[in-house]
Design goal:
about 230 residues; alpha/beta; TIM Barrel; eight-stranded parallel beta sheet; 8 helices
Amino acid sequence: MSLEQRLKDVERRIADACARCGRDPGSVNVVAVTKYVSANTARLAVEAGMRHIGENRWPAAEEKWRLLEGKAVFHYIGSLQSRKVKDVVGKFDYIHSIDRLSLAEEIHKRAEALGIRVPCFLQANVSGEDSKHGLAPDEMSAFVGAVGKLKGIRPVGLMTMAQIADDAEATRPVFRGLRTLRDEINGLRLLDEPLTELSMGMSGDFEVAIEEGATWVRLGSVLVGHEEIEG
């Protein structure tokens, strides 16, 4: 399928998932994960109507960022090392993967130096897998309270990754758990503004994530495909 056809198919599947749970499809945002495709394919994706671009490493994203600066909204979706913060803050519009206070503090300092405030998601490890980044759910309220004091960061929501499963239905408890966690944190009134966003769901499970409240889904293979890239 062409990129335009892939986008239409994803939009149809999002609409169907929203119909099943009584949601407005406009409440679901799609991040096209372009880390496995070339800068030219990323450009074609944006031209096809994919406004949000997701990358997980600055060296691989740099060419795409320079090509599409001002034409796309960039999301940093991977694990971020503190020493790489200088490469990310000021270039990426959203950061989806704040998973420790030391990282949040580095982002805050860089944002303050640039005179900006960075919208960020705080990462929770709802599945409990050792291979996953993020804080345990019972650690999140204290973490949210601490991040809320850093003026260079604007916490907008929570992010998680579900386990890899042959049956997408198996991921439902993880996504439901993140939604519940967000609502519990909002009930504690730790922030000046409530957390409204949930970044969860990828190519194999995004429909279940939407049914459980995802407002951002991160789609790679189902949307832009996978290419062999040199380097």
